[in-house]
Design goal:
Layout (H helix, E strand, L loop, with lengths): L4 H19 L8 H5 L3 E5 L5 H17 L7 E5 L7 H17 L6 E6 L24 E6 H9 L6 H22 L12
Helix pairs in contact: 3-4
């Protein structure tokens, strides 16, 4: 089934963010290789209600669990039409964790959270550090636990990644991040919707 123009816009904005911000700034040193190899699945959900999103999440969790890691390493489930409010999104994360438990996937798959208005507890909304988890649209990042463990085992001082990212983003500032977001992407292969 062909993608709608809205889906294409959502996916393109997400691809550009991944390439320019996450990989371009090396916020996640583990993202570059699967990106270059085209092993990141992008799925745009049509959900307009959290219940529908939970169904899409269950489908994507199963799809990732069953996929060959050599073909699909990780999944970004983007949901532009639901949970636009960060507090509602944050509440949904409990549902997502319960779904992992109900599907017996705890220890197999992990869900990381990204939202345009992401804000860490005790931080100001305009703190660039929040941008470590800000994305163009609300999304759930599904990761294989085995891949995380392998990446961490091969990374010197993995605990310093977050602190380094916060320092880098604060140095760049919100204006620098906006300028970065407006540079054209180079483009990489991805697994589509």
């Amino acid at each position: 089934m062909p993608e709608s123009s809205e889906h294409q816009q959502v996916m393109e904005a997400t691809r550009q963010w991944l390439e320019k911000v996450v990989i371009g700034l090396n916020l996640c040193p583990f993202a570059g290789l699967p990106w270059r190899q085209g092993r990141i699945r992008f799925r745009v959900s049509n959900a307009t209600h959290p219940r529908q999103l939970a169904e899409d999440l269950a489908d994507e969790l199963l799809a990732l669990e069953r996929a060959d890691p050599a073909e699909c390493e990780t999944t970004l489930l983007i949901h532009a039409q639901v949970l636009g409010d960060f507090l509602d999104y944050n509440d949904f994360l409990g549902i997502a964790d319960q779904l992992l438990e109900d599907m017996a996937l705890v220890g197999t798959i992990q869900i990381a959270s990204f939202h345009p208005d992401y804000q860490f507890a005790d931080s100001q909304p305009d703190d660039p550090a929040n941008c470590t988890n800000r994305s163009p649209y609300p999304m759930l990042h599904l990761l294989r636990e085995a891949s995380i463990e392998a990446a961490i085992a091969n990374t010197p001082d993995p605990d310093s990644i977050f602190e380094r990212n916060v320092r880098k983003l604060r140095e760049l500032g919100m204006d620098g991040l906006r300028k970065l977001a407006n540079t054209p992407p180079a483009g990489r292969p991805t697994i589509g919707d």
